[in-house]
Hints:
Elements: E1 6-15, E2 18-28, E3 33-37, H1 44-51, E4 59-64, E5 67-68, H2 73-79, E6 80-83, H3 95-105, H4 111-121, H5 137-148, E7 155-159, H6 167-182, E8 186-191, H7 194-200, E9 203-208, E10 211-216, H8 218-222, H9 239-253
Parallel strand pairs: 3-8, 3-9, 6-7, 7-8
Antiparallel strand pairs: 1-2, 1-4, 4-5, 9-10
Helix pairs in contact: 3-4, 5-6
Amino acid sequence: xxxxxxxxxxxxxxxxxxxxxxxxxxxxxxxxxxxxxxxxxxxxxxxxxxxxxxxxxxxxxxxxxxxxxxxxxxxxxxxxxxxxxxxxxxxxxxxxxxxxxxxxxxxxxxxxxxxxxxxxxxxxxxxxxxxxxxxxxxxxxxxxxxxxxxxxxxxxxxxxxxxxxxxxxxxxxxxxxxxxxxxxxxxxxxxxxxxxxxxxxxxxxxxxxxxxxxxxxxxxxxxxxxxxxxxxxxxxxxxxxxxxxxxxxxxxxx
Length: 254
């Protein structure tokens, strides 16, 4: 069996008196989509910043693609790409120019060929020469993700990638993420949208007040609730039902 693409054990992080992470543990299998689900302030972005070597944990260990995020930061950075909550694209340049610029900065051979391949892969060929300022929200996000894939990183972090997008743009981004995993890229996705995790993830971890309180497949999470009651129709619990039931129980146990 292959080693997990991401391994996190006992991760802790505090800011003065605020305990953001309180012993986080999880693993992400290679080529899978792992959703880290939680409300604003739950600690999702802090985990991503630690895994991408932008922040040091106070305690615990984390490895990405077999490299320790603290001891092997340079190798981790070579293995990953990070897409934040807002598209980091240059609106003055065209889509193709954005891609070529990043390819040159990363010293990738044949930047023009790489750019054209990504434009086709992300259905942006027709808009290749247009300024990014004319792109829709979904197009900008697809371009942003395309730029993050230059150099073929085996692991990509998507930190709330559909924030602020309209429903159609969200669907476009969802399709892009599914294509990434189909090609073997490991995706760690943070989101506060329950339907997004339900639609995309192979495994879902719910982060609440700095701890992972449940981790499993969608079917496994649904089994945590009582069986569906049959009246006229059978209603299976949604991920939203699971989330609020578990978070509510966690509050009662404190």
